[in-house]
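Single-chain item
Fold in token form
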Amino acid sequence: MQLRKGTGSMKNGASRTVLITGGAGFIGSNLAERLLTEPDTRVRIFDNLSRAGVQHNLQWLQSLPGSRRLEVIEGDVRDALAVRRVASSATEIYHLAAQVAVTTSVDDPVTDFEVNARGTFHVLEAARLSGRRPFVLFTSTNKVYGALERIPVQVEDSHYRALSREFRGVDESEPLDFHSPYGCSKGAADQYVRDYARIYALPSVVFRMSCIAGPRQFGNEDQGWVAHFLYSVLAGRTITIYGNGCQVRDVLHVHDLVDAMMAARNAVSRTRGQVFNLGGGMNRAISVMQMLREIERKTGSSLKLHYREVRPGDQPLYISNTAKLEAYTGWRPRRSLGQTLDAIYRFWLQNQDKIAVPANQIRRPAGVVAMEVA
């Protein structure tokens, strides 16, 4: 375990320590930014720094007001002793570190299990043994619901539509049905987090998340398909589509996700031990092809597509029903699909030299990318 050079002093009057595993990544860095605005909070990031862009995220965080209260420790959730050490003084733990790709889980199921299932177990044990009973929030996935065969769909234009007029999204009563090694590893972790709340009274919350998008994504294909599509279209690169491209997802701006995390924490007396489905909901749902066509229209760039077989367990339609979280906390998403895509585009304008797609291949669009979905 290594303390990264350039982290701030911890002797600054902060009264509580918040641990973010995977805190140098996309969601973690946005969460850390928010937590640094709380003057009594010491933010401790624990990350193995393996993903593209994380060093840029850390440099950005260290430039923010409050960065004297930021501590960055390089380490891996597969190291139980290291996790125990970084969690020993934490009053809140946001467990975001994960292997995030279905395709990678199929190629290397052992690593997928070790990171997602065993890594989460290490975090839970560290929280239990610390004696502090910290608030623990775990980011799970909609993949724990499997392929959702019980929801009949049909293709309408370029998207799947639920046949039932009463469909309002997938809620937490949906039966669990783990597909793919990724679904299994995240599902096992999901259930461990819930059971530690029951057995050990650990104040924990599970977010089963749909598509999260926004700034601080660096164009990795296996994480953040919206950003990956936008950057690839601007670069004139070929995009791989798994299946027919009619798959529908609801998209949530990462700042709305951070709002939800803070809402769950602030209402912990009600949210503890609960699981919540989280995404953009019915008003922010869009298919893969609809997203690509909108990006094509707004950028003036032609699409280059390559089709492959659908991935195991891929859901034709997934839209989150967020009514439970709204009822427990009052949270609602505030940013539209168009605002989310605009935020990604602005991030590219400011960071195109750091993004995975080479900047010299990218054609500048005529105007700001924007998108609205009826």
In short: The two ends are 49 Å apart (CA to CA).
